[in-house]
Specification:
- It is a single chain.
- By secondary structure, this protein is an alpha/beta fold.
- The chain has a domain at 1-44.
- Helix content is 36%, strand content 18%.
């Protein structure tokens, strides 16, 4: 089966839990980078900011660029802006 052209990777419960990274997850992300397979981290959590998520990922040993983390809050803000909806 051919590799996908890119991946969207969920965070909590997929790459890590409150106890730490899922076994093999840090190595799997490093392998994706080694293979130059594009990916982004995505989450529907509203409990942490993107900065907080990046800090958590880095604390667990993941190499992560903040621009590669996309949250549901960010999606909502983008949608409101695209539709011209303001406070």
């Amino acid at each position: 089966m051919p590799l996908p052209s890119a991946l969207l990777l969920d965070l909590d419960g997929t790459l890590y839990t409150d106890a730490g990274p899922i076994p093999g997850a840090v190595e799997a992300i490093a392998e994706l980078r080694r293979r130059h397979l594009p990916f982004r981290f995505v989450t529907n959590t509203t409990r942490r900011s993107r900065r907080g998520l990046v800090e958590r990922l880095r604390g667990y040993g993941f190499e992560v660029d903040p621009a590669g983390v996309f949250t549901s809050v960010m999606a909502g803000v983008r949608l409101l802006r695209e539709r011209g909806i303001q406070r």
